[in-house]
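USER:
I would value a second opinion on how I read folds in token form. Give me a protein, with the fold worked out from its sequence. Write it directly below this note and I will take it from there.

ASSISTANT:
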Amino acid sequence: MVSDSQTPNRFAPMPDPPYYAVIFTNQLATPAPGYDAMADLVLALAQSQPGFLGAESTRDEAGLGITVSYWKDERAISAWKAEAQHLLAQKLGITRWYARYNLRVAKVERAYDGPQGREV
């Protein structure tokens, strides 16, 4: 996983809506050997997928992580879900790394940036 000091801007640049967000909330099991390397590999692979728009990710000291990946459409999300290396990462997540996880898919219809440029 990329550390805060390595990424000066952790906000993904986004196009105007609509687009889709895949929200992956997870709790790492302890220990989780190999997880960081796989997370880096999966992000790099996602970035090469058609329809990938960006991602934002964070993890706290207790191992709770939230990653939101953004996609052009549901077709791109389905293709990503079925990608071979991603399938392997999913299997390892279930069997080795995650004590619990939730995945949600949402259509983004409105988006705002701030605080500058946002009227109250």
The helical segments are 35-47, 74-81, 84-97. The chain has three helices and four strands.
